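Work Package 3 committed the consortium to producing structural models of liganded targets before the mid-term review. Because experimental data for this complex are still outstanding, the team generated a predictive model from sequence and the ligand definition alone, so that downstream docking and mutagenesis planning could proceed in parallel. The input record is reproduced below exactly as it was submitted to the modelling pipeline, together with the SMILES string for zinc ion.
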Amino acid sequence: MQFTRKFEFDAAHNLTKGFGEKETQIHGHRYRIDITVEGSVKDGMATNLNELKKVVQTEILDVLDHSNLNDHLKIPSAENIAIWTWNKLKDKLQRLAEIKVYETPNHWVTYRGENEY
Ligand SMILES: [Zn+2]
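The resulting structure, written out as tokens with the ligand in place, is given here.
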């Protein structure tokens, strides 16, 4: 079974012109990240939610929240945030299945660890 938890954080970034005129100016987004893990149901649980929350807090939110994403990623696009997040979590969570990163409510990326970046 798949289990998903939604997380949110605020951060600033700026990107190159190719991402849009306004993206070259430093600005903020309220990012949403959906983390999906997979597990068999034991005692009614597919995953340990407290453990999942603790790992995401330490590895992702404590680092990115209220930061300038350009300090952490060369090109801080939603695509690269998804890959960065995947690489941070893949060895800390059992059976990470999917990561969605919403830069706005209207567009997001989905990454399942396909290819290695
Ligand atoms: Zn932006």
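Reviewers should note the following from the model. Residues 2-111 form a domain with the Tetrahydropterin Synthase; Chain A fold (CATH 3.30.479.10). These observations will guide the Year 2 experiments.
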